[in-house]
Fold:
Amino acid sequence: MSDFQQQIPNEAQRDEVDLVTIFGILFRYRWLIIGVTAGVAVGTVIFLVISLLLPPDHSPLPNRYEPEALVLIHDEDTGGGIGAALAQTGFAGLAGLQTPTGTGYGELAVRLLRGNTIVDVIVDEFDIVRRYKISRFLKDNARKEVRERSSVKFEQNTRTVSIMYEDIDPQFATNVVNRMVELLDQRFSTIGGSRESRKRDMLQEKLADIEREIVRLEEEIQAFQRRYGAIDAQSYAQEHITILAEMRARLISKQIEVETYAKFARMEDPVASRLRAERDQLQQAVDDMERRFFGGAGDSDTTLQGGEIPELAVQFGRLERELRVQGKIYEVLTQQYEVARLAAEGEEPIFQVLEMADVPVLKSGPSRSVIAIVATFAAFFLSVMLAFIISSVKKICTDPNVMRRFRGEG
Structure:
């Protein structure tokens, strides 16, 4: 029992000696600790002030700005829109680009903004390689730079997508963000966000062109009749005129489909290649039919093979035939236009811009006050550790037994 009672005072005495030793070391090297801490704090402040005064391009720690744009994604899927367009264009089978359901449109927006198509446009238009001085693996490193500096977040509760980009130039960052919003809008339009609306507009333009052509042909026929009188040209190949008109209408529809899809599709896209091949086949069939049955592509200066028809009758017949063909094309495209117009009116916009990015005034980083505080505390703890290390080294050097073992003498 007496041994236990003696052990407790001995342990307390050792703890007291250890604390006294620790505080003694700290007091002995107090000026080292104060000097290192104060030196690092002053040096950090000077460094931060210099980084603030220097131009951003030469500053070691420039201000960074991160403008933000906000878009709204309507996630209701009514069986059409992007889901149908993906199935039609062949995108639905691609890995990582499944037909969206539920909240899939927001996730699709994020994927599109992080995908190579939009990123490559940003890289090319804003010369990312030169701006960030990329010297190796230009394409891959430029894509990586854009993805690391951009931030795309989808909030499921509010169905909003926030798009941000960080750079030392606030105007440049704002331009990048707004361009990303435009490209996202175009991508949604391309894969079905407003596909019917675009088809309707293109059909409307084509109808206007055909209507002007019909007016021109009518005026040319009237001028021909006033000059040569009414010519009862033999009506030849009526069934071929109808077939030719339908083929031309199909060719125009196919051309519209190619232009609608291929605006943002890659050249190596198999769907785009297939559409272009179908368009070329239709064009070849139309040309062959015109050469075979009408002696050319509708040019009034080309003579029709067959000497039984007088030259004036041939010219008049071609004008009349071209007018009928244009009228048939106009009729077919009018039906397609009405269908596209009704489909476009029933479309609900999936992509809606809530806020475009404004040039930010306040920086997003770095926080210089936090850097100064962290650097000061780190210097303090490092100086304390340095004091204990110096004290231990001195203690070892003054111990003859340790030094003798260090020299290998015993």
The chain has three domains: 2-61+367-406, 68-194, 195-346. Confidence is low (pLDDT under 50) at residues 76-102, 233-237, 297-310. The chain is about 65% helix and 5% strand.
